[in-house]
Design brief:
The chain has about 140 residues and is an alpha+beta fold. Helix content is about 25%, strand content about 25%. The radius of gyration is 14 Å and the shape is globular.
């Protein structure tokens, strides 16, 4: 089993329900959710004018390989009504793979650690809350 950290975000319809539903569906699909951070409300970054986000980070264990996990998160996004119409536009749910064990992954489909997580307080604060022991260096993805 690998410990993974996922970032969740929602700014459409019932945001909290979307987050809870995403967590429930991960739990039903080989992703055992261990800890979920406090849900925080944040202003959108980039993209068109839109409502505030609710964001959370979760820690889970999974035996899914990285790309299977990615496929699962995208499938759940779709099930919960995410439509990728506008880049950085509003969305029912966003599930990002932040960390996959201590692996660095660089494929066309997936980059881990998540390339923009270090610029995002709404990822780093909840991540630190549930995993203060993690020592992360922004640059280790490039070595």
């Amino acid at each position: 089993m690998v410990t993974v950290y996922l970032g969740l975000g929602s700014n459409l319809s019932d945001r909290e329900t979307s987050l809870q539903e995403a967590i429930a569906r991960l739990n039903q699909n080989s992703v055992t959710v261990k800890k979920v951070s406090t849900i925080i409300e944040t202003d959108p970054i980039g993209g068109p004018a839109q409502g505030k986000f609710l964001n959370a980070v979760l820690e889970a264990e999974t035996d899914l390989p990285p790309l299977d996990l990615l496929n699962l998160t995208q499938k759940i996004e779709k099930q919960l009504g995410r439509k990728r119409t506008i880049p950085n536009g509003p969305r029912t749910i966003d599930i990002d793979i932040l960390l996959y064990g201590n692996r660095t992954i660089h494929t066309p489909e997936l980059i881990v650690p998540h390339p923009r997580m270090f610029e995002r307080d709404f990822v780093l604060k909840p991540l630190y809350e549930i995993a203060p022991h993690l020592t992360l260096e922004p640059n280790h993805a490039h070595h």
